[in-house]
Amino acid sequence: MMKNFAILVLVLFSINLVAQQNKVIIISNKYEFQKEKNTYNINTMLKAILVSNNYQVFFDDEELPFEIAQNKCNALTGVLIDNSNLLVRKIKFQIRDCQNNLLFETAEVKTREKDIQNAYIETIKLLSPELKKYDATVIQEKEVVATEELVDTPKISEFKTYLNCKLKQTFGNPQAEVTDTNDNILLSLQKTKNPNVFIAVNTNVINTNKEFVTGIFTKTGNKGVFEYYLNYQYMVEEYLF
Q1: Which domains does the chain have, with CATH numbers?
Q2: Judging by beta carbons within 10 Å of its beta carbon (0-12, 13-18, 19+), is residue 200 exposed, middle or buried?
Q3: In the chain, what is the greatest distance between 2 CA atoms, to the nearest angstrom?
Q4: 47 exposed, middle or buried (CB, 10 Å; 0-12, 13-18, 19+)?
Q5: Cβ contacts of residue 125 below 8 Å, gap of 6+?
Q6: 36-93 residue pLDDT tens
Q7: What's the pLDDT tens digit per position in 89-136?
Q8: Nearest CA to 14 among 151, 138, 154?
Q9: Which residues pair with 217 in a beta bridge?
């Protein structure tokens, strides 16, 4: 079940990534802050900047190619946001998917140029280097997908639950213990940078190499989960506090 869910998430993520890789983007000819279409040539300038960054750009009120008209998920949506005031012209640009999920947002670029036309020319030009950061983000996501394709959720061979346990931690001491009601040590823990994640050793279980088993102990609320391998079998133990 977990493996199937992971595959489904990966497929949906991959579909979303394909849309990003296509670099086809739809922008508006009239954004919310504009009273008329293409005021101050803002939209035309934005299209030119996107084209210079290797995007195929369409306005939302023009005839779209068949594959995009049939499936808007084959394109991205660009949203220009104007946060200007009387002293400063400030804009930023968002890239969203077909479900309006925010994929990327540029930093807010600004100018104190008083002429409105020149101010928009200047700020929209400043968006160009910001858009290159989105390309870098897509490359990183491609690497994540490639990594996830190699990951297979292991099948749990055995699952145990221990009730009424105690977690003993000492401030300033890198070690901690999980004990039962009689204070018998069940797990010896070593702290990590994450206060809820420990390197754990179960001194009551020995593998075929006559070594104590070592794994990861994760604490969430009043529960801790110890994951380890015993003779190549994936084991999970639950400790309730």
Answers
A1: 2-148 (3.30.160), 156-240 (no CATH)
A2: buried
A3: 79
A4: buried
A5: 49
A6: 999 999 999 999 999 988 888 999 998 888 888 888 888 899 999 999 998 999 999 9
A7: 999 999 998 888 898 999 999 999 999 989 999 999 999 898 888 866
A8: 138
A9: 198, 226
Q: Rounded to whole angstroms, how far apart are CA atoms 69 and 79? A: 19
Q: Residue holding tokens 């190619």?
A: 65
Would you state the pLDDT for residue 12?
41
Residue 204 · residue 178 · CB < 8 Å: no
- Whether the CA torsion 93, 97, 99, 105 is positive or negative: it is negative
Q: Where are the alpha helices (DSSP H) in 62-115?
A: 66-70
Among 99, 26, 30, smallest CA distance to 68 is for 26
* Tokens 């670099």, residue located: 23
Nearest Cα residue to 133 out of 109, 100, 99: 109
Q: Pull the structure tokens for residue 146.
A: 């490639």
Contacts of 212 (CB under 8 A, 6+ apart): 201, 202, 203, 205, 206
Check the CA dihedral 15-16-18-23 and report its sign.
positive
Q: Are residues 174 and 29 in contact, defined by beta-carbon separation less than 8 angstroms?
A: no
Q: How many CB atoms lie within 10 A of CB 129?
A: 12
Q: How confident is the model at residue 232 (pLDDT cuts 50, 70, 90)?
A: confident
